[in-house]
């Protein structure tokens, strides 16, 4: 089972297949990832994905403000291993100095709540390439195991959003993900849900029932 934002490492044969079919414009970035054995990122399954295929993405650092996004489909047999998104604690080492103290405070207050990072901060931590800019957000994943933890996690994020540019998603037990800021502002209404294969609307009540 693959979840959005998971890290996926390809086998040698997997990389060979990807590079063999790569457009020339993508070849240099793909070869760089292969050479360093950096992970690709699991993305939402597209409607045209073949049975047994895994949808992955690669995002090189932005150049002159332009962001390249490379979408890939590989056979499951091409994936050597999969890991969850990087923990925020691990990713924090790559953060700029201006975030150091506020991130330390956020992690100290998190207690048993595990926050994971994706997006620019996580990519910079994994590759040591330059992704973060003055306007970058900190994209976080928060996976509550109970209603109490959901409410505690929301309180945590809201209490630190004044000191850090926090963004990201709440991930419910069935893989349904909701932007935490949208959840904060929903007021009992429906919210946009992203999961492994679709984008849909759901009520906040139905999602809270998953944790009951």
TrEMBL record:
Keywords attached to this entry: Nucleotidyltransferase, Transferase
Xref: Pfam families: MdcG, MdcG_N
UniProt keyword annotation of Phosphoprotein present: no
Domain Phosphoribosyl-dephospho-CoA transferase MdcG C-terminal per the UniProt entry, residue ranges: 88-203
InterPro entries per UniProt: Holo-ACP_synthase, MdcG_C, MdcG_N
Ranges of residues in domain Phosphoribosyl-dephospho-CoA transferase MdcG N-terminal: 4-83
Entry keyword Transferase: yes
Domain of life of the organism encoding this protein: Bacteria
NCBIfam families, sorted: malonate_mdcG (TIGR03135)
Protein name from the UniProt record: Malonate decarboxylase holo-[acyl-carrier-protein] synthase
Taxonomic lineage: Bacteria, Pseudomonadati, Pseudomonadota, Betaproteobacteria, Burkholderiales
Gene name tied to this protein: mdcG
